[in-house]
Amino acid sequence: MDTQYKIKAIAIDLDGTLLTSDKRITETTIQTLRQVMEKGVHVVIATGRSLATAIRFVEQVGTTFPVVCYNGSCIYDPATKKDLWHISLNHEICTEIVRIGKGSPAHLHAFMDHELYFTNCGREADYLEPLSSIVGKSVDFESFDNLHFTKAMFIGEIGETERIRRHMHQRFGNQLHMVYSHPDYFEIMTGGATKGSALQRLMEIYGISADETMAFGDADNDKEMLSWARYGIAMGNAHDEVKAIAAGIAGHNDDDGVAKKIREVFNLNDPE
C-alpha cells in the first residue's frame, strides 16, 4: 500500500465494520481515529443507517466531517445541521412500495424527511437497532399526500424480500438502487444513490480525490464505496464478493479490525 501521507480521508461503514457485533465502538478504535484526525485526516461515517440512529456514533468518534447516510441518499453536515445532498424516491414508486408492504409478511420501514415510519406491526421488526422502535412512528401510509422516501427497507426472510426485489426491478428497472445491508434487510433507494456516489460527491466538495481516500466496509451496500476509493479495505468478516473487489483486507470487526489497519498504514503507536 502506498504512503500514508497521500490519504486525506477515511470513509468507514458502521454495522459489521466500525461497530462490534454488540453495536459498540471500542475505546481502542475511538483513540485510533482521534490520532489519525489529529494528523489532519478526515474521518467520514458512511452508513446505510438513518441519521437518527447513526449520529450518536458520529459524536462518539468526534468527527465533525459530513456524514453519508441512508446508503448514499443523503449527505448531512453535523456542523450546520443541514443536508448537503438529499435525494428521494418519487411518489409513484413509494406508493407501489406501500402497496407491496400491505400484502407482505416482511415489515416495511420507510424513511422520509429524517423520520422513520412503519405500521404498528412493524414497530419491533428492526432487531439490529432496537432504537428504531423508539424513534420511529406508527402511521397509515395512505394518509400521506406526497410520499418521498429517502430509503425504504423491508425486514424479513430472503425468499420474500427477493420476491419484492424481482417485482420492483421488473416494474422500475434502473430507476432504483436495491441492496442487502444484511441477509434480512432489503433496502430500496433511488437509482444512483450509493455510498460510492455520495462519497465521491462529498470528496469533490473538499477537493479530495479517490487516490487520496481510504474506505472500510463489509457488505453488499459497501461495494461501490470500496471500488471508488483507491484504498478500499474489506473487513475480515466481509462477504466474499466484497473481499473480491477490495484493495486490501482488515481484521474482524470484533477484533478492532479498522483500528489495526489504520495504525498499520499510518504507523501509529498503540493507544495507551
Topology readout:
Layout: E1 9-12, H1 14-18, H2 27-38, E2 42-45, H3 51-61, E3 67-69, E4 74-77, E5 82-86, H4 91-102, E6 107-112, E7 115-118, H5 132-135, E8 137-138, E9 151-155, H6 158-172, E10 176-182, E11 185-190, H7 195-205, E12 213-217, H8 223-228, E13 231-234, H9 240-245, E14 248-249, H10 257-266
Parallel strand pairs: 1-2, 1-12, 7-8, 12-13, 13-14
Antiparallel strand pairs: 3-4, 4-5, 6-7, 6-9, 9-11, 10-11
Helix pairs in contact: 2-10
Describe this structure in words.
The protein is an alpha/beta fold and 272 residues long. It folds into 2 domains: 4-86 and 193-266, HAD superfamily/HAD-like (Rossmann fold), CATH 3.40.50; 91-190, 2-Layer Sandwich (Hypothetical Protein, Haloacid Dehalogenase-like Hydrolase, Chain: A, domain 2), CATH 3.30.1240. The chain has helices spanning 14-18, 27-38, 51-61, 91-102, 132-135, 158-172, 195-205, 223-228, 240-245, 257-266, and strands spanning 9-12, 42-45, 67-69, 74-77, 82-86, 107-112, 115-118, 137-138, 151-155, 176-182, 185-190, 213-217, 231-234, 248-249. Helix 8 (223-228) links the parallel strand 12 (213-217) and strand 13. It is globular and about 55 Å long. 46% of the residues are buried. The mean pLDDT is 94.
- Compute the gyration radius: what is it? 18 Å
Terminal CA distance: 26 Å
**Anisotropy-based shape:** globular
Number of helical segments with 4 or more residues: 10
Please state the average pLDDT score: 94
SSE series: EHHEHEEEHEEHEEHEEHEHEHEH
Structural class: alpha/beta
CATH topology of the largest domain: Rossmann fold
Task: Please name the fourth-level CATH homologous superfamily of the largest domain.
Answer: HAD superfamily/HAD-like
Low-pLDDT residue intervals, each spanning 5 or more residues = none
Report the CATH C-level class of the largest domain: Alpha Beta
Main sheet specs: 6 strands, mixed
